[in-house]
Specification:
The complex is a heterotrimer of chains A (277), B (375) and C (573). Chain A has helices at residues 3-6, 11-32, 51-61, 63-66, 84-92, 114-128, 146-156, 158-161, 184-193, 208-223, 237-259; strands at 168-169, 175-176. Chain A is mostly helical and 277 residues long. In chain A, helix 5 packs antiparallel against helix 6 (114-128). Chain B has 375 residues and is an alpha+beta fold. Chain B has 7 helices and 14 strands. In chain B, helix 2 (68-101) runs antiparallel to helix 3. The longest helix of chain B is centred in the N-terminal third of the chain and has 34 residues, at 68-101. Chain B is flat. With 573 residues, chain C is mostly helical. The relative contact order of chain C is 0.09. Classes of the chains: A mainly alpha (277), B alpha+beta (375), C mainly alpha (573). Chains in contact: A-B, A-C, B-C. At the A-C interface, helix 7, helix 8, strand 1, strand 2 and helix 10 of A face helix 5, helix 10, helix 15 and helix 16 of C. Strand 2 (142-148) of chain B pairs antiparallel with strand 4 (256-261) of chain C, so a sheet runs across the interface.
């Protein structure tokens, strides 16, 4: 009998097996989930704000990666020409300041006030121009046609973000985020500046009206109720398949076991028969 | 064969005499003449009259029905079953009421209607099922029966009789004895085999060379899909831009777009490095087909034809979301991962007199999935 | 035991209507005996796994009912219209009439969305139940003689169900299913020599054309349901005629079948089962949204969404298309794309073809030509169970790969890594599954033998006079013993190279095929033999009698503590 076999009945054997299994799973999973890609430079313009205050904030927070004059370092790209819209997008979604270098930055808690973000945006815009922060009227979804927005969204956006904006996977561990939390301004800015892996959709190719149409589609769809019940994630048939097997078949298998279970009728001896199915 | 003798049943009891018959007709069986079927000796076919007691052995578990425990248990179960069926009734009425009372025509109202109709229908069926189940498990006696299996196989005598009759019938038909009849019959039915091909030929046109061409031709303007506006290089100047393109005049033509959809990408100076490639003697990619670092590729994946739409600005990868074929956009959309066998065809670009981007010509190779005649 | 009596004073007397209607019918058709022996008293064995096929059957009926409802409203046409209906987000958008009519069913017909959802959930359940039912039949060996024909009919039903579902969800002409159709056409186009002709004939020209939706419609509502109905009828009739199999149990033999009579017991149970299935589907249709075509939008060939998957039963095809690396041959002006052909033909071909071939292969490998009406416990057929698990892993890996982008997004695993894992596991997984499953089966057989020979561990501790504690083993009861002993013993066929008494080598082992057969036979025959008396292999002479209370030869009870321990609560009476 082998060494393992001889000890298989020891009390510790079960724990050892469980521990081994957990360690293997953890190692494999940890190895597989990798860091994402590199952050990209984005083209944008800026508007006039309190530039000096912005500069001070920039040098205190951002310069360690982006350089004292925003000229870029090995860790982060140059922001000259990036524009105010890019700054506003990255900081108001909490992606910047980045927590890790080289990772894909995800939406997170915002550490600056809107005023501070606008100041920094103004400073960056003063360095080299770039797309400005859009006005409230520019991004108002009420001025957009969601039907046209659907056509534009489905041809240019849904392949990454999903047909209803639920997000999707990109290469090398990156992902296109869900569009549930983005404000109309942030959506506009993202299209305009093309953050990280997202392409740029400049006003010359998707006019402000076209962008409004897309924003109207996104904002309307994400609050639209699901008349058929729970949405199951709005990712399509994958979750439907899981539901039918685990939910539908699982439930029915349990019922079939009940239907065919041995009957336990009242017995002649012993205390009064208890109600049992 | 011209039997005209009287038939007599095996037991000879009251079988009528056969009538005068024409030469060649088989002799009548006693059955046809209205007599009762005579049981053959020794046959144990599945239709033999086996008594219920031999066939089924029944066994009932549990106490007799008049036992007080059973009566009490039965009364309890009956209450549950009755409650279930009453619930079914209420749910059913609810279903009708919801149908009559709740309208649709908006998303919110559809939600409410679906919820009400669906829930009442679910309760109806589940309560009915529950009631029926408890009924069978607690109100019916616990009967177990053992049934005998009979031989599935026919017994040897029956097999032989069938074989013999079949042989006799075949011989009588002359099918074997008259080869000319047989062969001409088969010959006659042969063209029918071609029927599926012949009748279904007009299902569709022959492919011809249509898969080799798209609607792109020299001087055709590129339009932005959705807005249907033409585009100049100046409008498409932000590096990292990507947009879906449709050909002018075919914006809503799905048959054309299936092959003619194009993805347009703008690069920074120096990023594009498209090699000059040939397929045989045909030029299929070159830097000369770009305008101002703008390149146009077919949006139709060379794997099985999905729109290859996912563009990552940072890696310059064009990813097809269907099966993850990945194309490197700076080197002529060469395949770097996935099942696609060939790079995306490049659309030759130039600028027309008004400054708008137009195609120089059609694609120089077939677009989309591979096919046998592709070359 | 007396039968429950009919009290004619208080109970409803059925004899009058019986003599009336039934008598009228019997005058014209006869068959009182047939109705009694073949219908009313027919015995149905009671095991939960025997109800799985009925899930498929009743789902099919529900599909027919809801499908008929839908067919009154659906317009199978790709003629383009401009939408001005209730779903105002799409106002002014161009779409096909098929899509528009589906929007109308969803939002303008009361109960329309419910019917659509029940129909789609029932389709998913239909295929899911077919898979589980097929697996049950496989793992219990119920496809063996005399049921091979029924097995083949079943596989045909499964294949038809896949096509039926594919065409069904492609009818609304929405973005998701349209992408699937495009893939279907692309694959078809790639078939050598005739591919482009097949594609053009099916679609009436280049993709998408205007013919595919009406053609799919008639195939979906008439052609395939007709064939399905005929095959299902044949399938059930054959099951009826041959009688159902039964699980090994006390009193169950190859010559009988034990269970409950059809009337009223099985009829009541199966009716309840139908209600539960319908209720479950209605519940799903109420609370779980499925195929929200208004979110997908009308089909256009320039657009695609991430997470574009077909319905789950197409997952194996989708996954193989994703896992397959690029591979194409160009020669003499022709192109053959293996990256498309292999995924199209191989995985489903292996699974369905292998399944169809299996009963005959098993017969060839084991030399077992007997009738089998008693099911096998999966552990008693290690090779079959192992191959079945290998097939499940093969199918499952490719199915999961079909959802690789969703998995990548959800589990934060890089996209290409998921595909690489699938590529490796498609080959490695089934091999591992076979080996592990076979060993588990043999291990379970060993456990069964232990139980049979030495009794089961009862949890009762007994102290021996010298102070040692042992666990008392109780002999298994009669029912359990019958189950454990119901183990088919496969005789080993003569090996190649052996000769009989006259020096003649066995015919079954001749040639290459014979050698292969011998290898297969040895694998199949590997089992843990059960000997009813004495100790089998693996027991050393030392300690065997002291580790557990000796049971000795089969059936004698263990020596139980008879009240000699003061505070022991011997719960057994």
């Amino acid at each position: 009998m082998s060494w393992i076999n001889a000890r298989r009945r020891r009390p510790a054997a079960g724990y050892a097996a469980l521990l081994l299994g957990l360690v293997v799973v953890a190692l494999v999973y940890g190895a597989l989930t990798s860091q994402g890609g590199v952050t990209a430079a984005s083209a944008a313009t800026g508007t006039q704000q309190d530039i000096a205050a912005g500069k001070a904030l920039f040098q205190a927070t951002c310069s360690s990666c982006h350089g004292l004059d925003a000229q870029g370092t090995s860790q982060a790209p140059s922001l000259i020409g990036a524009g105010a819209a890019a700054v506003d997008f990255q900081m108001s979604t909490g992606r910047m300041p980045a927590k890790e270098v080289g990772a894909e930055n995800e939406r997170g808690p915002v550490t600056f006030t809107q005023r501070q973000i606008h100041d920094i945006a103004g400073y960056i815009a003063s360095l080299g121009g770039g797309p400005p922060i859009p006005t409230a009227e520019q991004v108002d979804p009420r001025n957009g046609d969601p039907g046209v927005g659907y056509e534009l969204f489905s041809a240019n956006c849904s392949q990454c973000h999903g047909f209803a904006g639920a997000g999707g996977a990109l290469t090398y561990g990156k992902d296109a985020p869900a569009l549930t939390a983005a404000t109309p301004t942030q959506i506009y800015e993202a299209m305009l500046t093309g953050p990280e892996a997202m392409p740029v959709f400049a006003d010359g190719v998707l006019s402000p009206q076209a962008k409004r149409d897309i924003i109207a589609y996104i904002t309307q769809t994400r609050v639209e109720p699901n008349p058929g019940g729970f949405s199951l994630g709005r990712t399509g048939p994958v979750t439907e398949g899981i539901v039918i097997f685990l939910g539908g078949m699982g439930f029915l298998v349990l019922i079939s076991m009940w239907i065919t279970a041995k009957r336990r009728d009242p017995k002649p001896t012993g205390p009064t028969g208890t109600e049992q199915k | 064969m011209s039997d005209m003798e009287e038939t007599e049943g095996a037991e000879g009891a009251g079988v009528p005499v056969a009538p005068h018959r024409v030469i060649g007709t088989p002799p009548p069986s006693p059955r046809l003449l209205g007599s009762a079927p005579v049981a053959q000796e020794g046959s144990e076919t599945a239709l033999a009259l086996v008594s219920d007691e031999e066939e089924f052995q029944e066994h009932i578990d549990g106490l007799p029905p008049d036992d007080p425990q059973v009566i009490v248990h039965g009364k309890r179960a009956e209450r549950v079953v009755v409650a279930c069926f009453l619930l079914t009734f209420i749910a059913g009425c609810g279903f009708v009421a919801a149908y009559v009372g709740l309208g649709v025509h908006t998303v919110d109202k559809t939600l409410r209607s679906n919820l009400a109709l669906g829930f009442s229908m679910s309760v109806m069926f589940l309560a009915l099922g529950l009631g029926a189940l408890i009924w069978v498990r607690h109100l019916m006696p616990n009967v177990e029966v053992t049934q005998q299996r009979h031989d599935l196989r026919s017994d040897e005598k029956e097999r032989q009789a069938t074989e013999a009759y079949f042989k006799e019938g075949t011989a009588n038909s002359g099918f074997v004895k008259r080869p000319l009849v047989r062969r001409t019959l088969m010959l006659g039915t042969l063209p029918l085999l071609a029927a599926p091909v012949v009748l279904l030929r007009d299902l569709g046109p022959q492919p011809g060379t249509s898969l080799r061409r798209t609607v792109w031709r020299p001087g055709l303007r590129l339009l932005v899909q959705g807005t249907n506006q033409p585009i100049t290089p100046a409008q498409f100047s932000a590096p990292g831009s990507m947009i879906t393109i449709v050909p002018d005049g075919f914006e809503d033509n799905q048959d054309a777009l299936t092959k003619a959809a194009v993805i347009l990408i703008k690069f920074r100076p120096g990023e594009l490095n498209i090699p000059t490639r040939y397929a045989g003697s045909t030029l299929i990619s070159t830097m000369n087909w770009t305008v101002d670092n703008i390149v146009a590729y077919s949006k139709i994946c060379t794997h099985v034809g999905c729109p290859v739409a996912l563009y990552e600005q940072t890696t310059h990868h064009i990813l097809c979301p269907c099966h993850q074929s990945t194309f490197e956009a700076t080197t002529g959309a060469t395949v770097i991962f996935g099942p696609a066998p060939r790079p995306l065809p490049q659309l030759p670009l130039t600028v027309d007199s008004s400054g708008y981007l137009v195609s120089k010509s059609d694609f120089t190779q077939p677009v989309g999935p591979s096919f046998w005649e592709r070359g | 035991m007396s039968r429950p009596a009919v009290n004619s004073d208080t109970d409803f007397d059925v004899s009058k209507p019986l003599k009336g209607t039934a008598g009228w019918l019997d005058d014209r058709f006869g068959g009182a005996r047939g109705v009694r022996t073949y219908l009313l008293r027919k015995v149905y064995p009671d095991h939960w796994s025997f109800l799985l096929g009925e899930i498929a059957l009743y789902s099919f009926i529900i599909l027919l009912l809801t499908g008929t409802f839908l067919s009154f409203f659906f317009v199978p046409s790709t003629t383009e219209v401009v939408y001005h209906g209730s779903y105002v987000k799409f106002d002014g958008i161009r779409m096909s009439e098929a899509f528009q009519s589906t929007l109308r069913i969803s939002f303008d017909v009361r109960g329309g969305l419910l019917m659509r959802q029940i129909h789609h959930w029932a389709a998913d359940l239909f295929v899911a139940a077919l898979i589980i039912h097929m697996l049950r039949v496989f793992f219990t060996g119920a496809y063996r003689k005399p049921r091979e024909v029924n097995w083949l009919i079943g596989i045909t039903l499964f294949a038809l169900a896949l096509i039926e579902g594919l065409f069904g969800y492609s009818l609304p002409d929405d973005q998701l299913s349209g992408a699937g159709l495009r893939i279907f056409e692309g694959v078809l186009q790639g078939v050598p020599i005739v591919g482009t002709y097949l594609a053009f004939f099916l679609f009436g020209g280049p993709f998408p054309g205007h013919d595919i939706v009406p053609r799919m419609y008639i195939i979906h509502v008439l052609l395939i349901p007709g064939i399905l109905l005929a095959l299902i009828t044949a399938h059930i009739f054959i099951m009826f005629w041959q009688k159902h199999t039964q699980m090994p149990a006390k009193g169950n033999t190859e010559r009988n079948v034990t269970g409950q009579p059809s009337y009223p017991y099985f009829v009541a149970k199966t009716s309840a089962w139908f209600m539960f299935i319908f209720g479950a589907l209605a519940l799903l249709a109420t609370f779980a949204q499925i195929n929200p075509i208004w979110l997908y939008g009308p089909y256009t060939p320039v657009a695609i969404s991430s997470a574009s998957q077909p319905d789950f039963y197409m997952g194996i095809l989708e996954g193989s298309l994703r896992a397959m690396p690029a591979w194409e041959w160009n020669f003499l002006g022709h192109t053959v794309s293996f990256s498309v052909l292999i995924p199209f033909a191989l995985p489903l071909g292996i699974v369905l073809g292998g399944a169809a071939f299996w009963p005959f292969f098993e017969r060839w490998a084991t030399g077992d030509k007997a009738y089998h009406h008693i099911n096998d416990r999966p552990r008693n057929a290690p090779v079959r169970t192992g191959i079945g698990m290998a097939a499940i892993v093969f199918y499952g890996v490719l199915w999961a790969e079909g959802a690789n982008d969703v998995l990548a997004d959800f589990l934060h695993i890089p996209l290409y890594t998921v595909t690489w894992i699938a590529r490796v596991l498609t080959i490695l997984g089934p091999i591992l599954a076979y080996v592990i499953t076979k060993r588990i089966c043999l291990g379970l057989q060993r456990k069964d033998r232990e139980d049979l020979l030495h009794g089961y561990e009862s949890g009762i501790i007994r102290q021996l006079p010298d102070g040692e504690f042992i666990e008392v083993h109780q002999p298994v009861n009669e029912e359990r013993r019958a189950v454990l002993e119901a183990k088919p013993v496969l005789a080993l066929m003569p090996a190649p190279g052996s000769k009989d008494d006259n020096g003649v080598p066995p015919p079954s082992a001749r040639g290459m095929l014979g050698k292969a057969r011998a290898v297969a036979n040895r694998a199949f025959a590997e089992t843990v033999p059960v000997e009813a008396d004495g100790h089998g292999n693996g027991h050393g002479p030392e300690g065997a009698g002291e580790e557990h209370a000796a049971v000795g030869s089969a059936g004698t009870p263990a020596q139980l503590p008879s009240g000699d321990s003061s505070d022991e609560d011997s719960g057994s009476s």
